[in-house]
Fold these 3 entries.
Entry 1:
Amino acid sequence: MFTSLSDRLSATFKNLRGKGRLSEADVDATIREIRRALLDADVALPVVRAFTGAVRERALSDEVSQALNPSQQVVKIVNDELVGILGGQTRRIQFAKRPPTVIMLAGLQGAGKTTLAGKLAHWLTSEGHRPMLVACDLQRPNAVNQLQIVGERAGAFVYAPEPGNGVGDPVKVARDAIEVAKTKLHDIVIVDTAGRLGIDEELMRQAADIRAAVNPDEVLFVIDAMIGQDAVTTAQAFNEGVDFTGVVLSKLDGDARGGAALSVASVTGKPIMFASTGEGLTDFETFHPDRMASRILDMGDVLTLIEQAEKTFDAKQTEQLAKKVEKGEDFDLNDFLVQMESIKKMGSLKKMIAMMPGAAQFKEQLEAFDEREIDRVEAIVRSMTPQERANPRILNGSRRARIARGSGRTVTDVNQLMERFEHARKMMRQAASGRGMPQMPGMGGPGMPQMPQMPGMGAGGGKKTRGKQQAKKRKGGKSGNPAKRAAEAKAAAEGKKTQHPAGASFGGFDTGPEEQFDPGNLPKGFGGIFGGR
Amino acid sequence: METTDLLIFGIVFVLAVLGTVGVLFLRATRLRRQEQAPLETDVPEAPTVEEETPPAPPLRDVPTEPQGRLARLRDRLAKSNSTLGRGLLSLLSQDTLDEATWEEIEDTLLLADIGAGPSAELVDRLRERVRVLGTRDPGTVQALLREELLALVDPQMDRALNVDGEQKPAVILVVGVNGAGKTTTVGKIARVLVAEHRSVLLGAADTFRAAAAEQLATWGSRVGVETERAEQEGADPASVAYRAVERGVQEGTDVVLVDTAGRLQNKVGLMDQLGKVKRVAEKPLGGRPVDEVLLVLDATTGQNGMQQARVFAEAVNISGIVLTKLDGTAKGGIVVAVQRELGVPVKLVGLGEGADDLAPFDPEEFVDALLR
């Protein structure tokens, strides 16, 4: 279904073709879609309401009705507003004029405070500070131990005078810690507190007492990116209780859309300063409002995709590949294997496709996709000899039969793979010669005539036996089933007729079949990649 | 040509060869076709309306009450798909509640993290029922809503922990994302089991997080339960799970509780590791599967909870859900959708940091809390 906001809006606006301007009813329909998208991303209801109100006002103005592409214009407005609320600029930690600078962490249970304390200490050490960790979580069993181990890994001193597990007074520990830091010349004190609920008055008072005792320069509210509607209540409670100065969004490496970021920022007006993105000590970064906005709207996170790709792809191999493409040489199956290996290292293929803009419309299809298909394709390629891989043209009938036997697939599978490989190669050639992103075979959205090029794919049971019969009869790609063969022929003819010009559309990935590919329509960071090439 | 371009091209290239999206499209069309059928049969039922089929070939027809007849007619019309029927229904009935009331109801559901889709569905169904019954009273509507929700939560489900199997030990694997409360839950379950006079052994297969094994051992030692743990940090969690179960088999323990490290569901490697932990833990059992795989879900979790449940169910086939942190302001409404989609019952709820704050899940209480 349409999950991505831009897809939804495109669908809503489809009926508007030919209309001079948007009526109020049109805008209301749009607003409903925006509301739904935000709710699906776990943005809190009151925030959604205020937000859609603001967007509605702007959407009714000339700004939208006079735009060439109203749906994109609305998406842009929504994006702008989101970035506005999330804070355009990232705020840095404010250090005290006279050290030590005190940073206090607060949040619900399991939000990730102790882990964050370690990350902060590690980061500050690398910035040339001498941080000290203070164990004020005396509630949870062995929280003190955990902090000690985390501190050790981060190379920071941990002040833990009390054993914890319900013993000791956290307020006193916090107060003493400041003196200790002064005598030991630590310039930063990080106070880790116990997790507490917003409605737990006693514990909230204790947190407020700790705050009063250490007079921190920064109070960071740690909140789980997966939190739902409760974000508002919790944020308000902590804001009243400890009056935090900044927010840290944890577990952002998950696949939650993170509407909580918007809720908290909008309800409390406090900036989101950091994002915690993993379990390692270094998985910690400053918060990027623009990326977060795209994420909430499910517009695909191309930046993250590229970053991830850069991390996993072998630089040397990539360079070799680049040279090859520059020289105008063809890709061969060896290159394909290398690429596939790298992609496999990046994790789930589904996840990766999901990061592409507009991919959400394929969500259901993606769910049904069998990741093992990659392994099957790999098996086929690996069953080829090196010569065959370097020069696929030498693949004749008997070689194909051998490959099929070797990989445990059918000849039809091999044929189909080679067919797709040829298509992809053509596509790469066009891309390399600088005509932008060409039509991609097999990647079309609904209504794309290229579809029937993959007969039998995903046909499920009965496929194997049919493949064998086919193998005896002929080598070509035509189907053994007469009705199907006719359909194929027809489709092929249609395919010729309706051939899209090269670079016309990103295979239905972005805007759907009817719309022209326009690099300007893509989310930030994506346009530059394909534009003008 | 820049390297980033190349990377993207590379990815696209591989995708194209795999024919991924093409396959997907074909499958999707089929899926869509399948989906259409059940949709039409998904018409709300009005339990107040009696079915016409008389029981057996009995004595005499029992005439229905006159005032029930109009409701029945409207019900029939509501079920019909023809335009005429729909038109007649709107003529015969009117929406007796104003938009504000409906909005209020939807808001209640949304605020409980039920989710935008299911909330809208529930409200639509309710609207239809209200039309059929012709109620004007918001109180009745509330009662109807409660009824609908309760039906979704399904009080009939078996929510008992499966620890009384024929073969000992019963093995319980506890899984979930980071910070959901797995270790705490394991500690609490151990207490309950000890209170029921069962012998328990804990397996600290969370070898990743600092001091996780100590945390579990502390829980265990409070009730005199031993903990099987790795000799060093960062050991293979599967081997710890194996040793715990093996020791349970040797010592004839009633229940072995295995705690695992928190993992986000989109980390493929970690999910594979979890699958391995489960497989390896089953080895000493001689082909018998683990008795219970409990997914710990934080009640504050929003719509991502669905994704969590889906992925964990796929990886280790969860058999029950523990909803933790219900003592806060969060309602945990996401489990309604989870239970409906996966059919996995919520078995236990965590109600705080106290040692004994673990209770069996009560559907009625849960629904009442949702609507409060």
Entry 2:
Amino acid sequence: MSPIIEIRGLSLAYERDGRRTEILSALDLAVPRGQFLVIVGESGVGKSTLLRVLIDLAKPSTGTVGLHTAPDTRTPMALVFQDARLLPWRRVIDNVAFGLERHGLPKAERRDRAAAMLKLVGLADLAGRWPHQLSGGQRQRVAIARALAVEPEVLLMDEPFSALDSFTREGLQDEIQRIKAQTGKTVLFVTHDIDEAVYLADRVVVLAGSPGRIAADVSITLPRPRRRRDAELVEAARHLRAELSRRSSDL
Amino acid sequence: MTALRSAGLAAVGLAAFLGVWEAAPRLDLVNPAFLPPPSSIPAAFGREIAGGAWPRAVAESLSHYVVGLGVGAGAGIALGLLSGMFRWFESLTAWIVRLLRPIPGLAWVPFAIIWFGVQPSAAVFIIAIGVFWIVFFATQGAVRGVDRDLIEVAQAFGFRGPFARLTKILLPAATPGILVGVRTALGQAWMAVVAAEIFGVPGIGARMMQASSLLSTDIVVVYMLTMAALYGLFDTGFVALQGWLLRWRA
């Protein structure tokens, strides 16, 4: 299957006070359509920056990003931020409909689609609430619904569950797997949590070093639904940890 | 202190204030023509209403107030948004602002009269200038203070032009700060109303000057209290509107 995203020779550096800082260096990465790709690495390794380049919030210094999405896609990619970043002056339903306001749909249809997305993340009852009335986990679900509402072909998620307590986090991990299975979207998911990575991923890419490079690229072929603390998952995580510490000591 | 007790104390304080005020002219401590006792005010108020002067003056002043406030706050918000959004606009206007901002609103009275005559438009002009700077700086600061992260959300969803940034993020996010400025302006505008009308534009201020030249100080007090009441009314209404507009806040 042809890749939906093809990153070639991507580097990103910025200059401040005459000092040049490289965040990412000569990155090559091809993401097949429909893959759940998890990018792990320590903080400061450029994981988030990579997503920001993909969604055009940051410009690469060199390299190209090839995107092979359907030509009629209005919003090929959507990003879920680490902190939900809901717009506090909009009710939940209007937050979910936010991205649709660019799509030239009548208001009733935007509302219908937003309501359907809220149902998908299990928050249909909270449509009329204000963001400040929600828990952290609910806010993040709304952010996921907002990203899905624009029907992106690729869903980018930047450490979306790292600010949540572990109970909520596990619930949302299962939820995102279910949504992935239901919608078949390509997902690029950034985390620093290796257990989370192996639980969710079809493939784990490890970024390490400064500037960040791809240090390991591992397929996780365990069947779904997966069970947490399954022996094979634990083994995959152990292998990945070993790989990660070996690579970072090399670099 | 309970709410009831503090309300009781407030009532006692007001009663004592009115008592001293009433006693001073009655005991001939001051000339009643210089300080009319509060008991004489209702009758004066009745005469002003019966003669039609009160409704006319209030209607005139209110129209200056509302139009002046609208023009001044509207211009303040518009230019404050521009200045908050675009650095080049802020730089372009930086020295103009430095030059004009320190000039008190009332210093514009001579030009107001030369340009507009002793007309309602002169009052509107003075009120608008008095209000403009407050709202301008409140708006500029509020736009500057908008969370960059929210602007990024708009960009990530493809809202990248300045107009979309303004309507989707900046304006709603800056609304609380803008409203604080407008509320301050609400009070400032009454000062400008009186000032403008004291120079002859018909309204409450002009009526007060008329009355004081005839030593009808009870009528002056009627209009002073009228202004306090009108300001209280507008401020209460505005606070209610503010609460409704900002009902999304915790």
Entry 3:
Amino acid sequence: MAKIEFRNVVKRFGDVEVIPDMNLVIEDGEFVALLGPSGCGKSTSLFMLAGIYVPSGGELLFDGHVVNEVEARDRNVGIVFQSYALYPHMSVRDNILFPLRFKKTPRDEALGRVKGAADLVRVAELLERKPSELSGGQQQRVALARALVKEPQLLLLDEPLSNLDATLRLSMRTEIKSLQEKLGVTTVLVTHDQIEATTMADRIICMRAGRIEQIGTPDDLYLRPASLFVASFIGSPPINLIAGEAQGGTVAVNGAKFPVEGASGAVTVGLRPEHLRFGDSGFTGHIVQIEPMGREILYVVETGIGIIRVLEQGSSATHATGEKVKIGFSPENSLVFETAHQKLLPGAHVHAPA
Amino acid sequence: MTTTADELMIERRGHARSATRMRANFLIFLGPAIVLTVLFFIVPVLIDIAVSFTDLSRSLRITGFTLEQYEKIFRGDRRLTPVIGLTFIYVFGTLAIFNVTFGLILAIATTSLRNVSGSFFRGVWLLPRMSPSVLYILLWLWAVSPAEAGLVNQVLMQGFGLDAPLDLLTSAPIALIIISNGFIGASMGMIIFTAAIRGIPEHLFHAAAVDGAGTFAQIRFITLPALRWPISFVTIYQTLSLLVSFEYILLLTKGGPFYDTTVYALYVYRRAFESGQYAYGAALALFLIVIGVAVALLGWRFFDMERLLQRPRIEVH
């Protein structure tokens, strides 16, 4: 197992600077997720950890040793690619055996470890098959077994669930998480899916355009997003953002006014749909659309301050389209951001209008 | 096979109209190719078969039908056995050394170089194929000229201190025809293998690198297995083309000294057009046709050629 450290790591491809300056510490045995939209540099970071890309600057450390120039094959990492990258002409057994080939493991021991890894991810009955004869979920398990068979000090997962169907994704999520806990291997997951990140990782590193926006536990990112980007990236359905002008304890939006504390100047107010409720006071508006989501209903409400989405528990709608409603919330659930720097104003809250 | 468009057309116009249309399409799209195939492949084969049963010779007069040409092939022609042996050495040697092995090395080497220099070296190796065959062989003749001015002799004498010039055309004619053909043949394998290597998903190499494979292990476990197909194709295709082509040998050595570099196809040419034994040449050529068809069928069966001709399946990711 290993403790991983990025020290001022830079990565350029030609003239394009993909990662300008990355600093990050991943503790031994930790499960972290690199989360961000495509092109944010999360896969590039992962490939640098794997040794596929060489950093253009800075230092990458495994357990205190600089590994910038250490080749992929000498790093003892396991990786699962988005496409699984199973060797098409080899049987499942040979695929899992492949990493041990280069470690000069005695044949009997190697076969034993293949069996062990296959049992771990429950593909023991598929050992004779070719990858093309496997389902997506099975291929993914084989890829995991291949990554784990050499007992890596670091496990890298590049969008491992994105090619699976929804049901399978759910069960694989649980399996990977419990496997990681059982083995205690330091794990880095790359994903653009916030649910994957929040459900599996101990800590999430939210990235945008090559920079780290925020590092924190799933709760931190959800409850105290450091920036507007994180606030809008985490949470489904997405947070309601209302831009306005704070002055003398009130925010003015399109002529509508409501109380604010701890902020002044141009602000953006963030209100999560699940924190809003219909009541006797608050923003007035009328429902323009109802979207049933199973055990929740999403109401799209047109108000004086713009479109606001409200999530209500329950499987049947208690309100109808066109109905006039008032939307309320608890002030401690509101988030206020500085519009200019897109940063959270800690301690600032808004109140619903009376 | 009917497509959705066909079905829609049938629905709209009725079966009779669509049948006419399909027949017209058949003629328009396949007609020219069929005419060419019949004119330049089937008709010549039929003429060849007919001529081989006659006594057509220098006088260009046919006096009667006879089996004597075939009797000559199976009984009388002593030269035939060495010619067939040489053909085997020539085809196998050119394939094994250049067209497959060297083509493979070129493809693997140039794809691991940076793009620009890789393309440059591929371009260099394409030059022999692009130059006219007569010009190409003239260059060879100059290079292996037995005089001291010959390129090879200049290099050997001035660079390596050789005393007397070599006459490679008489001392190593077989090696010479293999090398001169191989320099051309290697480029085809190179291009096909390069395309195939480019088609291998990059993440497979990444995965292998992380799994501990070095450069040679990556070639052995990732590249070569993916090239099984193109290698089969190049082998079959080049076997057939080496069997029937003789123009470079004719230009370089004229089949000599004596019959030392006369491969089967050239032997047919020499019998028919140098000795004027047209009917005998026709009979010999018939065996070339039979061998060609046999090799093609063998390849079909042995290398699973059928898969190459199957309609491609679009992969959706």
